[in-house]
Specification:
By secondary structure, the protein is mostly helical. About 70% of the residues lie in helices and about 5% in strands. It has 16 helices and four strands. A four-stranded mixed sheet has the order 1-2-4-3. Strand 3 (about 245-250) and strand 4 form a beta hairpin. Helix 9 packs across helix 14. The radius of gyration is 23 Å and the shape is globular. The N and C termini lie far apart (about 55 Å).
Length: about 425
């Protein structure tokens, strides 16, 4: 394989990926707009036309912003690769750091920093433009900056040792380095899952024990009925940043905890909260987190193996605008071009996630009140301005949750 062929494959993949996503986005825009002026029959008793129209307008605005982001990202990707951007960063650090390992760490961190800086204008517009316009943003400029600084500090604290370890493995462990790197990556992912609830999330949000005694008793009753040991139930100050509501369960073993957004608790009745919690318990009882980790492990193993093959060939670097091969540039190139081709796997992952959501709904139906879960979901759709009429093809490709109408119909039929 020669460099020109590699460049041609990359450009073809990028054009196909962009074309597919713009086609899906345009379908979604037309479909949502065409159904903006009529509330679907299943929701007419609980969602006003005004709320439905707001959700449609919000969805249209977000989809347009996503398409702009796609176009900008594609241009920047071309500049980084065929335009010589990565090569310039590489030459900059080659002139300043002799150690290959530390030069690699510096190059990767600086590129990630520049990517974040280039994404900043769209992030600012999303928070203080789009979200503000639809009444969801509660983030102050100071909090936005503080989150960004905390995120950067956390990224450095975690990223520098991880990058150094991966680069050392690539350099020191021979032809099968990719297998050892994959093992290190999966160990890091597991530690991250364990550390997130107690060490990472509290850096950005305040978590307070659930103080509503009546609701706590109902939660304990659900736990007893399902044989699920629930020790920690927390309320998160989601309203500090956004009006959107949510709930989730996270962690394993001793780090496992249930988290309700304060916005969710203020929007739902007690039986609806319990039904939503039953849905989250379903994910645990049905081992969905373990299944997703297993799928991620298999996919990442294939990715590391592919990188192991590509990084050993000079045409991989030359075809993507890099003049000197190195382990750290192999990582950066793969990190950048991987999503271009991974997008074609998106429907498979989305379908797996939607099946898990249906299964968790069925579990919640069996251990709580299906009607209460349906009511709670409708309120969340309404208050979060989720479109009730997504384009079916777009939804099948992207959405990790079933379309609202199908989800509610499933619960009502049960």
């Amino acid at each position: 394989m020669n460099a020109n062929l590699v460049a041609g494959i990359f450009l073809t993949g990028l054009a196909a990926s962009l074309g597919l996503q713009f086609w899906l986005g345009s379908r979604h825009l037309r479909y949502v707009a065409a159904h903006r002026d009529a509330v679907p029959e299943a929701f007419r008793d609980s969602v006003s036309l005004e709320a439905h129209a707001k959700a449609a307008n919000y969805t249209i605005a977000k989809t347009k912003l996503n398409l702009v982001s796609l176009a900008v990202s594609a241009v920047l990707l071309l500049i980084w690769t065929l335009g010589g951007g990565l090569d310039l960063v590489d030459q900059f650090w080659r002139a300043r750091i002799d150690s290959g390992l530390w030069r690699g760490v510096a190059a990767i961190i600086s590129v990630l920093f520049l990517i974040g800086a280039l994404d900043l204008p769209l992030s600012l517009y999303s928070t203080f433009g789009l979200e503000q316009r639809f009444g969801f943003n509660r983030t102050t400029p100071w909090l936005f900056v503080l989150d960004m600084v905390k995120g950067a500090a956390l990224g450095l604290a975690v990223g520098v040792p991880l990058i150094f370890a991966i680069l050392w493995i690539m350099q020191a462990t021979g032809a099968l380095w990719w297998l050892y790197a994959w093992a290190a990556w999966m160990a890091f992912a597991l530690v991250q899952v364990l550390a997130y609830p107690t060490l990472i999330a509290p850096l950005f949000n305040k978590f307070s024990p659930l103080t509503d005694e009546s609701l706590r008793q109902r939660v304990d009753g659900l736990a007893k009925a399902t044989g699920f040991a629930i020790k920690d139930i927390f309320v998160m100050d989601g309203s500090r940043r956004s009006a959107h509501g949510n709930a989730y369960m996270t962690g394993f073993g001793a780090s496992k905890r249930i988290v309700f957004f304060d916005t969710l608790l203020s929007a739902l009745q007690g039986d609806e909260v319990i039904a939503v919690l039953a849905h989250e318990l379903g994910h645990y009882k049905l081992a969905h987190i373990q299944k997703k980790l297993a799928a991620a492990a298999v996919m990442s193993l294939a990715g590391w193996a592919l990188l192991g093959w590509l990084s050993a060939n000079d045409w991989f670097y030359a075809g993507l605008g890099v003049s000197q091969a190195s382990n750290y540039l192999a990582l950066l190139l793969f990190m950048m071009i991987g999503p271009v081709f991974a997008v074609f796997l998106r429907p498979l992952l989305s379908n797996l996630s939607r099946r898990h959501e249906f299964e968790a709904d069925d579990y919640a139906r069996d251990v709580s009140d299906a009607a209460a879960l349906a009511r709670g979901l409708v309120k969340l759709y309404r208050d979060n301005a989720n479109s009730l009429t997504p384009d079916p093809v777009y939804s099948a490709f992207y959405h990790t949750h079933p379309p609202p109408a199908l989800r509610i119909r499933n619960l009502q039929a049960a």
